[in-house]
Amino acid sequence: MEPVHGAIPVMCKLHTLELYGCDLTCEGLEGILDKCPLLETLHIHGHFDKREMDKELKLKCSRVNNLTLDTKKPYDYGYGSAGSSYLSEEDSSQISSEEEDNDSGDE
C-alpha cells in the first residue's frame, strides 16, 4: 500500500477522487480536502483509521456529499472484501450538531 500523508497538489476543478490501495493518514485526508475545494465524491480504498479524526477534520469531511473511508487494517486489505466504511450515521449526526454549536458560538 502507498501512504498518502503529505503534499497534495491543488486541484480546484476536481469533483470526484477514488484512491485504491493506499494507506491514508489524517494529514493526507486533510490535504486532499484542503486542495480540492469542489470535491463531491471521495472514495478511499485501502486503510484509514477514522478514530484519529478530530472535530475539524470531521467538519471538512461533511462537505463531501459521497464519502467512503476504508477502515481495514493494512494487512487485511484486499479488493472485493468487506470492510469499507462510509462516514457513519452517528458521525454525521455528531458533525451536524458540532456545526450547529459552531454557528451559535459565532453570534
From TrEMBL:
Ranges of Acidic residues composition bias in the record: 88-107
Biased composition (Low complexity): 77-87
InterPro entries xref list: LRR_dom_sf
Chain intervals for the UniProt region annotation (Disordered): 74-107
Name this polypeptide is given: Uncharacterized protein
Organism: Digitaria exilis
